[in-house]
Specification:
Homodimer. This protein is an alpha/beta fold. It is built from twelve helices and eleven strands. The termini are far apart. The structure holds 1,4-dihydronicotinamide adenine dinucleotide and oxaloacetate ion. The site of 1,4-dihydronicotinamide adenine dinucleotide (NAI) has 32 residues, from helix 6.
Length: 359
């Protein structure tokens, strides 16, 4: 008997294990017999530290689960103003490598952010039918501003993925906050437009009768209505479209978000496909940080490819975040007309974000 107990470690280790079982929440500030410092370390498993802000929401929960399954993640911090204990407890039972810790409320924001390599922000309210993304500005602008102030203070070098809408304004707000704090590095701030690419690949594959996994459509501009500009002429594999097909596909891609908002009939906007897209994008950022070559995705970034200060286009991701922002490439007349419409709306949305942050 004694031998068996000894095999299981000394008394302190046994108590620690029992206590861990009694208190699995891994919540910041939870007191129990077990201090986290007493846990047996996981041997410094390689990987990145990722924080999700808004982790208990419609996007946040599936996003947190998918990031818990990501082998590139060693530590996953889940922050929200509500419900993080339950989400953290639940996810902490998954037998994947990432260690999950939960953080609840503004007092715990700094601890949630300290030491992070990548911060993903899906915090904020979603649309209801009849609303535009810009209608979310009044609530979400302040949320993103406060969270970015925390990032500037606690992990100024982290890569930041902004999901909260309206992305066309929240990314400029984040940039202004970082500029004000003296921490702005345009290579590390990315508005997540991956869902537009995911939708474009899916809808184009439907029309062409292809497997969506074989299709790659660049989507440039921004992330709202006409600012979402799919470049069907640059699709891989190369394919041609009739003008009716191009008009149908462009409209469906631009209105994909509204399609989901209407189908959910008041219960929110895209969450599951967004979580999938966010993880696809976050994984690319982590691959870049790891030093993988040729990691290229579309994102809404600080840019000189047009006269606007921000624009979504293809970027190459690397150890410093964005290593290269690609020019838009050749466009047909339909796309050039779309580009002019996109730029007009984008300019106003960017300006709205910049002046909000200046207040
Ligand atoms: N970039 C994109 O492609 C997409 C963006 N979105 C946007 O993502 C945002 C989130 O959408 P859902 O997850 O569906 O909303 P949700 O309402 O289900 O979840 C939002 C979460 O944010 C939390 N939250 C609110 N204020 C916070 C704060 N100050 N700090 C931390 N967390 C806070 C809430 O407690 C909630 O858990 C919305 O703004 C939505 O428009 C949605 C789909 C696609
Ligand atoms: O449409 C919305 O409000 C959410 C969103 O950004 C999207 O699904 O693309």
């Amino acid at each position: 008997m004694e031998q068996q107990l000894n095999r299981g470690g000394d008394a302190n280790q046994r108590i620690a294990r029992i206590s861990a079982h009694l208190n699995p929440n891994q919540m910041e500030g939870n007191s129990s017999l077990l201090e986290r410092a007493n846990c047996r370390a996981k041997g410094g498993s390689p990987g990145f530290k990722v924080a999700i802000l808004g982790a208990a929401g419609g996007i946040g929960q599936p996003l947190s689960m998918l990031m818990k399954m990501n082998p590139l993640v060693s530590v996953l911090h889940l922050y929200d103003v509500a419900n993080t204990p339950g989400v953290t407890s639940d996810l902490s039972h998954m037998d994947t490598g990432a260690v999950v810790r939960g953080f609840l409320g503004p007092q715990q924001l700094e601890n949630a952010l300290t030491g992070m390599d990548l911060v993903i922000i899906p915090a904020g309210v979603p649309r209801k039918p009849g609303m535009t993304r810009d209608d979310l500005f009044n609530i979400n602008a302040g949320i993103v501003k406060t969270l970015c102030e925390g990032i500037a203070k606690c992990c100024p070098k982290a890569i930041v993925n902004v999901i909260s809408n309206p992305v066309n304004s929240t990314v400029p707000i984040a940039a202004e906050v970082f500029k004000k704090a003296g921490t702005y590095d345009p290579r590390t701030l990315l508005g997540v437009t991956m869902l537009d690419v995911v939708r474009a690949n899916t809808f184009v594959a439907e029309v062409l009768g292809l497997d969506p996994r074989e299709v790659d459509v660049p989507v440039v501009g921004g992330h709202a209505g006409v600012t979402i500009l799919p470049l069907l002429s640059q699709i891989k594999p190369p394919c041609s479209f009739t003008s009716e097909e191009a008009a149908y596909l462009t409209s469906r891609i631009q209105n994909g978000g509204t399609e989901v908002v209407e189908a959910k009939a008041g219960a929110g906007s895209a969450t599951l496909s967004m979580a999938y897209a966010a993880v696809k994008f976050a994984d690319a950022c982590l691959q870049g940080l790891r030093g993988d070559a040729n990691v290229i995705r579309c994102a809404f970034v600080d840019s000189v490819v047009t006269e606007l200060p921000f624009f979504a286009s293809k970027v190459r991701l690397g150890r410093n975040g964005i290593e290269e922002v690609y020019a838009l490439g050749p466009m047909n007349e339909f796309e050039r007309t779309g580009l002019e419409m996109a730029k007009k709306e984008l300019a106003a949305s960017i300006e709205k974000g910049v002046s909000f942050a200046a207040k």
